Amino acid sequence: MIQALLASGIVFGLLKYFERGKDRGLDSFTSITFVLVPALLIFLATIGTGIAGIDQQFLIALVALYFIVPMLMLRLQFELSWRQSAQYGLLVLLVVITVDTLFYILLSATNA
């Protein structure tokens, strides 16, 4: 969850930077929601597959939730265009993948 909070902070900073001068209501709670909702859904799916005994390799497609959730929230709740919503969704996905990758690299380096 540390990496989710780090990613939320980075997403918040980037949204504030890109949305400066515009008052659309994109605040810290929204940026946290963009990261924590998909993380919670993936966590619950991981628990479900573990209980059911299903191979967890099928869960890799759920990473797309980091793109889908922000895109739909920005389009439907904040009424941004589909293009801008997709760009911000891609930004969230890239930030989460980068933070997770760096987090696991640092974690594996400390365990070596």
Automatic annotation (TrEMBL):
The chain crosses the membrane at residues 30-51, 58-76, 88-107. It comes from the Bacteria. Keywords: Membrane, Transmembrane, Transmembrane helix. The keyword Transmembrane applies. This is Uncharacterized protein.
